[in-house]
Amino acid sequence: MPELPEVETTRRGLAPHLEGRRIQGVQLRRADLRWPIPEQVAEALPGQRVHTVRRRAKYLLLDTAAGSALLHLGMSGSLRVLPGDAPVRAHDHVDIVLDNGRLLRFNDPRRFGCLLWQPRGELHPLLRGLGPEPLSADFDGDHLYAASRGRKAAVKTLLMDQRIVVGVGNIYAAEALFASGIAPQRAAGRVSRARYEALATEVKAVLERAIRRGGTTLRDFLDADGAPGYFEQELAVYGRGGAPCRRCDRPLRQAWLGQRTTVWCGHCQK
Ligand SMILES: [Zn+2]
């Protein structure tokens, strides 16, 4: 499933091909993805110029003067810029045709993705109530500390709560907790300010590292076939239950926490 770094890599890959271009038309090959595609997408977008390609949490927004197309890749979605005559393949659901003979194509085999419309000056309901971006200055140890006081929920659950901070999925939460030495199941309200400082720093570091690695796949967003290669990552704990801890060599533990499997080192994380 695309996580924040993949979505940010997608944004960076698409922006140079879309920003400044005028949209000539929208071709919908089906009426719905995860949700019905609102008719404003096909009605309002043609003729509009794409000002910016933005990301908020794991949503991509194509901003125009009329409003914004709001996209989510879901579990299996991908976006690419293709020549206008590129053959249509299975699961190619939407084309946004550009004024330079190219098009932006949305492919999504499992259809958990979405294409929605945000009128100018409004905030789509899906974007309301979200916490700060993890790579922004608004997200830091003080923010986590303040948000966690009196909370009995596990610190990992807090970290994955989109109202607290957006875009920290299971992989990155597990990795950041390992890097900062905090046990994932520790009650959020019982983690000190200093440890939250370390955690916030590690969240940023693990996401930035993943985005940097994604940089090598940017070419895949242009004229490529198949699904973009989400980057291989060197993960310390995620997916490594039972394997030796890279710090102390003891076997990593694995358990269910908040309906997610979580892996940690019982020795290195307290
Ligand atoms: Zn260890």
TrEMBL record:
It holds the Pfam family Fapy_DNA_glyco. Coiled coil: none annotated. Residues 236-270 form the FPG-type domain. It comes from the Bacteria. Involved in base excision repair of DNA damaged by oxidation or by mutagenic agents. Acts as DNA glycosylase that recognizes and removes damaged bases. Has a preference for oxidized purines, such as 7,8-dihydro-8-oxoguanine (8-oxoG). Has AP (apurinic/apyrimidinic) lyase activity and introduces nicks in the DNA strand. Cleaves the DNA backbone by beta-delta elimination to generate a single-strand break at the site of the removed base with both 3'- and 5'-phosphates. This is Formamidopyrimidine-DNA glycosylase. Monomer. Its EC number is 3.2.2.23, 4.2.99.18. Its cofactor is Zn(2+). Belongs to the FPG family. DNA binds at H91, R110, R151. The keyword ATP-binding does not apply. It catalyses: 2'-deoxyribonucleotide-(2'-deoxyribose 5'-phosphate)-2'-deoxyribonucleotide-DNA = a 3'-end 2'-deoxyribonucleotide-(2,3-dehydro-2,3-deoxyribose 5'-phosphate)-DNA + a 5'-end 5'-phospho-2'-deoxyribonucleoside-DNA + H(+); Hydrolysis of DNA containing ring-opened 7-methylguanine residues, releasing 2,6-diamino-4-hydroxy-5-(N-methyl)formamidopyrimidine. Binds 1 zinc ion per subunit. It comes from Luteimonas endophytica. The lineage of its organism: Bacteria, Pseudomonadati, Pseudomonadota, Gammaproteobacteria, Lysobacterales. InterPro entries: FPG_cat (IPR012319), FPG_Glyclase (IPR020629), FPG_N (IPR035937), H2TH_FPG (IPR015886), Ribosomal_uS13-like_H2TH (IPR010979), Znf_DNA_glyclase/AP_lyase (IPR000214).
